[in-house]
Amino acid sequence: MRFAAVLSDLDGVLVDTGAAVERVWREWAVSQNLDPISVECASHGVPSRQVIERVAPRLDAVTEGERVDRLHAATGGVALPGAAELLALVSPLAVVTSCSPPLAAARFEAAGLVAPAVLITSDLTERGKPFADPYLAAASAFGVSPHDCLVVEDAPAGVEAGLAAGAVVWAVSTTHSAAELGAATAVVADLWAVLDRLGVRGRTAAG
């Protein structure tokens, strides 16, 4: 199975942050007198700035988003099984994340992973996921059509973004159930399954 490029999400696909991300959002919500469950539900796979614009439009989304991202950066992260192999064996590959540049850097460092040359962070597009813009930017960076790309995601907002870009979307059920990811082209258990479907274990190619 061949694709012009593979475009992978970061949190929940390459890096496991456990329950830390949700905990940060819940604590932030309480500090702002907001419903923590509603804020947590709005936060998955979406840039911090967009979350705050949605749940607390009275606040300065840029300043508050930066503060939340600093809290997230302190939570660390662990490489998910198959993450190092995906980064090493698949080319061309971009990471497309809702993280800010400092937060993405913190995630890679904590997980002991090396960021690819093409890294699309939340500052590089006006609109983040669930809009198509981040994945369109990644495809453009490689000079390929998004319709010829594979997107690997773990959250409904990311699945929506990949599909909106016109890409094939494989969702890994690492953070959400298969039912929640049902809009994806395919749902697989983890990155080992992605590598197997691509047929790239032991060689370097996009698929």
Q: Kindly report the spatial arrangement of strands forming the biggest sheet.
A: 5-4-1-6-7-8
- How big a fraction of the residues is strand? 5-15%
Order of helices and strands: EEHHHHEHEHEHEHEEH
Helix content: 40-55%
What would CATH call the class of the largest domain? Alpha Beta
Total domains: 2
Rg, alpha carbons: 16 Å
Structural features, described:
- This protein is of the alpha/beta class and 207 residues long.
- It folds into two domains: 5-17 and 77-198, HAD superfamily/HAD-like (Rossmann fold), CATH 3.40.50; 20-73, no CATH class.
- It is 42% helix and 14% strand.
- It has helices at residues 20-31, 36-43, 48-55, 61-73, 83-89, 101-111, 133-142, 156-165, 191-198; strands at residues 5-8, 15-16, 78-79, 93-96, 118-120, 149-153, 168-172, 186-188.
- The protein has a six-stranded parallel beta sheet.
- It is globular, with a radius of gyration of 16 Å.
- The mean pLDDT is 93.
Structure in a nutshell:
With 207 residues, this protein is an alpha/beta fold.
What is the secondary structure topology, with strand pairs?
Blueprint: E1 5-8, E2 15-16, H1 20-31, H2 36-43, H3 48-55, H4 61-73, E3 78-79, H5 83-89, E4 93-96, H6 101-111, E5 118-120, H7 133-142, E6 149-153, H8 156-165, E7 168-172, E8 186-188, H9 191-198
Parallel strand pairs: 1-4, 1-6, 4-5, 6-7, 7-8
Antiparallel strand pairs: 2-3
Features:
single chain; 207 residues; alpha/beta; Rossmann fold; 2 domains; 6-stranded parallel beta sheet; two-stranded antiparallel ribbon; 9 helices
